[in-house]
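Pilot study result, target chain (919 residues):
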Amino acid sequence: MKKPRCTEGLASVALIVCLALFFCSGWSPVPAPSQNPYPSLPQDAGVLGLKQELLRLQTTARLMQVVAHPDDEDGGMLTLEARGHGDAVLLMTLTHGEGGQNKLGSNLFDELGVLRTLELTASDRYYGVEERFSHVADFGYSKNPEETFEKWHGHDIALGDIVRVIRTFHPDVLIARFSGTERDGHGHHQASAILTKEAFRAAADSKRFPEQIAAGLAAWQPKKLYIGNVCGFGAMTCPGENYTVKLNTGAVNPALGVSYVQFAMEGLRHQLSQGAGGWSVEPGDRFTYYKLVDSVLQPATDKDGHEKEFFDGIDTSLPGLASRLGDEEKKVPQLRPALVDVENHLKQAASQADADQNGAVRPLLTALESISRLIGQSSDLSTSARKDLLSRLQEKEDQIQAALNLALNTSLEPTAVIPDGIPNQQNSLAISPGQKFAVHAKFHNGSRHPLWIKDMILDGIVPAAVQEPGRVLQPGNDYETNFQVQLPSSFPVTRPALHRSDPERDTVYQVDEPQYATLPFPPPPFRVVAHYDVPDLTSPTHGNSAVRTFATFPEISMPVVAPFTDEKGQQQSRPVNVTPTYSIMLEPGEQIIRVDNGSATTAKVGVSCNLTAGPSGKLRLGVPDGWRVQPSEFPVQFSKRGDRQDFEFKIFPSSLKEGEVQIHATLTAGGTTYSEGYSLVTREDLPSTYYYQPAIQRVSIVDVKTPKDLKIGYIMGAGDDIPTVLKQIGLDVDMIPAEKLAGEDLSRYGTIVLGIRAYDTQKDVAANNKKLLDYVSAGGTLIVQYDTGVSDFNSGHFTPFPAQLSRARVSVEEAPVEILAPDDPVFRYPNQIAQRDFDGWVQERGLYFMNQWDSNFKPLLSSHDPGEQAQKGGLLKAQYGKGLYIYAAYAFFRQLPAGVPGAIRLYVNLLAAGHGPGH
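Predicted structure:
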């Protein structure tokens, strides 16, 4: 019978201390420990979680897979290895997916990269893997590795990151998801495999990337290298000579309740920005194939050249750690027998756990003590041998600690109590320098043993705040305590380790915090650690830990979190972040001004404060030379934390000519100048982080003429910022909600535009396609932008005349463009379109071109990537009844927000098609 809950102790300590994060001078030589700030998956909690941890303790195997983007990973294989075999698995994703499309909204580039990183880390929880990244960027679709390496400034930036992670993680097996051949398709995919092959040997060469060696890393040689995509993804059969290892990820794991690939798919479904929410895998066999292409071991294949698994020929047992030392094993003669002893205790723990969760505690305590002693007995080994042995022993120590906490059903909940203010999601997780706050920590003893609380430590501060209650906590009870903290004004903020000055054009990130550069995000700034004892198992005299026979204490550690209410009204908690006192946002981030603009424009600045009674200050706007701004400054004063104030400056441009300028906002307060804004990025199913951006508005001055008296209706698809740009240049744009399309009077509009992927994402658009075509027939102009659902689009017969959508694209933004019909009114009214209008485009020309069309369609442009045939299906026009139907696959959704002048002029002409001279 479960005992009633009671609070046994409540302590409070005032610790008004000067805090500082500990930043290493070099890159961390060991993997950062996992910290899961939200509730564990059911498979990782209780008895199931204990058995999973005990499985991990039976092996020292380490596997690392390298992919190009989020969602490239072989989730079924990763889950099989991590959860089925207990291997330590690391997934390295070279880019953050920032160059892809967003199926949830209009956020692109780095903000999309932050979202996709959060989504991937949510998937990783299911796979059971650690995550690392490079600092090269996803710059959009690339058709070959040559272009990829050109954009990534050669091989060495990404290669150096892979080598660094190999030298940190020490994988036995290195796996490329792709093959490095044309079979992989995407140039990033090919490049990721090419780099993985290079990294296999480069990581072992201390002359390669010697700065890493100088910073404390040691050369490391993985034992085996495999490549994937040797038979095509999803293949159920494969020629024997094509593969070495064949794994059935469709096998059911009873602890998961489904197969490995099905469980991985549950994780992948968190990648909603990629459209994965509805993906599924049917029960049954599902195979994945990999080919061994390099090895430093003797072959372990059978007569057919096959292996049973990746680690064939590698001793992954605990005693096998002694064998890894080779001749150096004689320097530590106590190592092998001690490891055999630890292995036996862990087997005993696994046996006991089958019958009794708490029964695993005693052998785990013994194993913990033995491992801890071994960690201190490796000083006679060479540097490389010692580092590898220590990393694996420390990994086992961490796993034993995790297993003990599960076996004893202990929990620790450190919660930040932040001063009241105006409640909002934006500031709920934010603490700013100079702020006072409390941390409430609750330790729960869910075991049947009394536990002795040795200490509670608030970490992340210098010096660490330590409480030593020295008391026994009875089964079923809680120990609670408070830490009172004030951050100094100089405390560093929790910010991304990487940034790009121009996300639309930069293809490599600048590294700001080297020690965190390969992590998804910086670690939480604060955590609470509790050390405790099980005195009736470790001390000769029950209840007296002063005479305990064990030197090492079990511990439990969790990051400090804060509660908040999500957009659906549900209570959530996430780790706190340290953010600047003020957030300054220029809105919108991009503005288009016409060259013939003879009047003032405005810039709106939103300022948020994260301190109660934050210092007063002055807000100013920096404008180009010769421009005037009114007023010259605004006084800023906040009385409540979380408050926001909006300010509007009038700007008087001068001597306008086509080009790009910047406006920047600064707030000077309390002797500090603030010049950036931040916003919380999270979702109910995701972790959280703050996205930082400079308080800059990029202003594109464009020479563009617009048609008079043209009313435009815009039906949003997946989300884009085109309507904002159209309004900025003076066009009359109404947003038509897709769900109201059926009842809308379309005759009010001269032109109607379907946003990107409208047929993919808005069922009402497909349902009312006939109404849209009737609108064209009656004299309207309809512009349909690209869709990705090729099969559904083609089977839906949405075009007025037969046409076939394809996945054809032109990925090189500088690719030549030929105007096929220069005399067509589309290129003459209201703007004269010339070759120069295709200069300065960003990321790509276009995507999802038509590859077949009826003779009623007229192709207007032709373009192609280097070495390919001309693509003429990117801009098609057809007269249908009295009106015009236009299919526009060129990437206007990227060009217009980026302020590309020629793209803006061409888009305006498309809107005016059918309404000007010559029509």
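One observation from the pilot: The longest strand covers residues 659-669. A full batch analysis is planned for the follow-on phase.
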